[in-house]
Amino acid sequence: MKGFSPDSLPVYSTLVDQFAVFDRWFSSIPGPTQPNRLFVYSATSHGSTSHVAKQLALGYPQKTIFDSLHDDGRSFGVYFQNIPTTLFFRNLRRLKYVFNFHPFDSAFKRDAKAGKLPNLAVIEPRYFDFPGFPGNDDHPSHDVADGQKLVKEVYESLRSSPQWNETLLLITYDEHGGFYDHVRTPFVGVPNPDGNTGPAPFFFNFDRLGVRVPTIMVSPWIKKRTGQPPSPLQFFSLSLSLSLSLSL
């Protein structure tokens, strides 16, 4: 089993040393990217266990955290670079949400500096390469150095923001990428979120989690070198494309 050395990931190494790291944060299902991303925003993939192009194009119908925030009178924003994959949720395509989507390069630093970040700010990385703008989502074969640059940019924008003292930055991944892990995936006490099952022939019951994913939490209220010990209450897995910041 191989991995990146601390020197290869200097931003992560620094954040782990100064804030909190989780070593029992599991992806939501033992499956690929999009079902896990659906889970983080809606606590279910609505029965999806793979990438179904037709369903992604139609959009998934379930209620999301964004809808709940809107219903409660709270704000959210999606700061995207290539395309916002959050649009795989049908509800987010509604006209009422059009001003909740912002180009990352022109809007995120501006909003952070002005202290105008929403209650929930989601950062979507660059998923595809363009000339002069390489992918920075850490997906093979993208250079992890570009992902480190993105995390550094987000962290420094938050650190210098007047909202810093009321901000939590969460950095995690949708799934493990198919790499080996010696830790068994949890399968006891994992509830099916909505009664849906996966398609034939396996009819997955969504009653076990996927492989561990790296997760870091950053906040001025977190003690240095905080770690999450194994716990029977560890089955609250979330999965993000790369990072999320929460400003309360």
Automatic annotation (TrEMBL):
Pfam family, one: Phosphoesterase
UniProtKB keywords: Hydrolase
Keyword Hydrolase carried by entry: yes
Gene3D superfamilies according to UniProt: Alkaline Phosphatase, subunit A
InterPro entries from the UniProt entry: Alkaline_phosphatase_core_sf, Phosphoesterase
Gene Ontology BP annotations: phospholipid catabolic process
GO molecular function, one term: hydrolase activity, acting on ester bonds
PANTHER family listed in its UniProt record: NON-SPECIFIC PHOSPHOLIPASE C4-RELATED, NON-SPECIFIC PHOSPHOLIPASE C6
Name by which UniProt lists this protein: Uncharacterized protein
Organism: Linum tenue
